[in-house]
């Protein structure tokens, strides 16, 4: 069974901390994505990557960065966490050039910044 | 105008009825369309996708696409309480780096006994 694994289910961090969210997929997918999901706002794309060491900004990249050193791993970094970054973070992956089949999502990380 | 629009609901239907979920999109260049189901506290899971105008059926689910009207819908026949969830419509758009999905905010469906 294909999987996208997010390292933490729940995280509580303090304002100003540097936060790392990790995502690993075992499907040999080229594309990986980070979304955040907030009530009433839906899923919003933060960053995505279509290849190792490649990244592209999504709709709301401010305050975030990403790293993709290996094909299977895509990390989201909050450089200096703020309370408005409290959210559910979802990682997803897909095959390149395949709108076919859509994304496979990880189970999500609920981040609370206090 | 939002890129992908859905009525937030909740949409309440009795058990055994047909639930009809609707979605409109703004980008005429969109190529493929997806329906995801999301239970409370869980991540989205893909239930249907469609590329061509018309209907596509999979078990109790039927996706309908009308590109001229920029409209996609999901019908759930014989609705069950286990169908109670939020349904997300997603639209694929091609960027320089490949495909990425834009999601609607979802419609909450409640199937009542």
Question: Can you give me a brief rundown of this structure?
Answer:
The complex is a heterodimer of chains A (114) and B (113). With 114 residues, chain A is an all-beta fold.
List the helices and strands and how they pair.
The complex is a heterodimer of chains A (114) and B (113).
Chain A: E1 4-6, E2 10-13, E3 19-25, E4 31-38, E5 42-49, E6 56-57, E7 64-70, E8 73-78, E9 87-94, E10 104-105, E11 109-113
Parallel strand pairs in A: 2-11
Antiparallel strand pairs in A: 1-3, 3-8, 4-5, 4-9, 5-6, 7-8, 9-10, 9-11
Chain B: E1 4-5, E2 11-14, E3 19-25, E4 32-38, E5 45-50, E6 54-58, E7 61-66, E8 71-76, E9 85-95, E10 98-103, E11 107-112
Parallel strand pairs in B: 2-11
Antiparallel strand pairs in B: 1-3, 3-8, 4-5, 4-9, 6-7, 7-8, 9-10, 9-11
Note down, in words, how this protein is organized.
- The complex is a heterodimer of chains A (114) and B (113).
- In chain A, a hairpin with a 3-residue loop joins β4 and β5.
- Chain A has no helices and eleven strands.
- With 114 residues, chain A is mainly beta.
- The termini of chain B are far apart.
- In chain B, β6 and β7 form a beta hairpin.
- At the A-B interface, β4, β5 and β10 of A face β4, β5, β9 and β10 of B.
